[in-house]
Amino acid sequence: MATTPNRLKAGKKASFNAQAFLDSVGVARKIVEFPKKSTIYAQGDPAKTVMYIRQGGVRLSVVNGAGKEAVVAVLRAGDFFGEGCLAAQPIRIGAATSVAPTSVLVIEKDEMIRVLHTEHEFSDRFISYMLTRNIRIEADLVDQLFNSTEKRLARALLLLARYGKDNQPQRVLPKISQEMLADTIGTTRSRVNLFMNKFKRMGFIKYNGGLQINSSLLSVVLHE
Fold first, then answer.
1. What Rg, from alpha-carbon coordinates, does the chain have?
2. Tens of pLDDT along 187-197?
3. 124 and 163 inside one domain
4. Which of 88, 85, 112 is nearest to 22 (CA)?
5. Which of the two residues, 47 and 140, has the higher pLDDT score?
6. Is 169 in a helix, a strand, or coil?
7. Would you state the pLDDT for residue 48?
8. pTM to 2 decimals?
9. For the chain, does the N or the C end have fewer beta carbons within 10 angstroms?
């Protein structure tokens, strides 16, 4: 089952500069800097804030009772996370970890609720963003259930590169390890390494001061 281009472009509408808007309306918030591999919040922590990534990247993960970790998402600048508190979630159901030096805008739950109620433009954009991310999560589940490891890896790389924003190869920032890619798509590091080498030989990716993704990688996702 192939993933459609529309799903890969799902995040394209989210071009609204939330940080500039929050600055303009004087939202009470603080900026926190996290070094690479820092715990932003742990699974089970009280859920009291919504966060917005200004710079860097964040890995969301969940650990089950047996201690097995699953990566739920890798987020980048312009993404919100921790929004579960807005739906009366008392504790964090997963952990958030920085995957690069990361700057995060932290907004208290009550302040976020106030802004959503009073600033309709921001509210509309936030709801649109959350719906888009829910569609992305649903597509990820379908991808996990029906697509091969090769297709899942190709799709994950295209999403990380924000495929669809322009026609040029895009640098994947922050740098993502093969271990994290393996956790994200549900496979082993050796399998990721195998397909990364294949993609490189075929010209779909290249290493030039960082990992670059060519839009031609989409052919792997669309191939039946």
1. 18
2. 888 998 999 99
3. no
4. 112
5. 47
6. coil
7. 95
8. 0.67
9. C
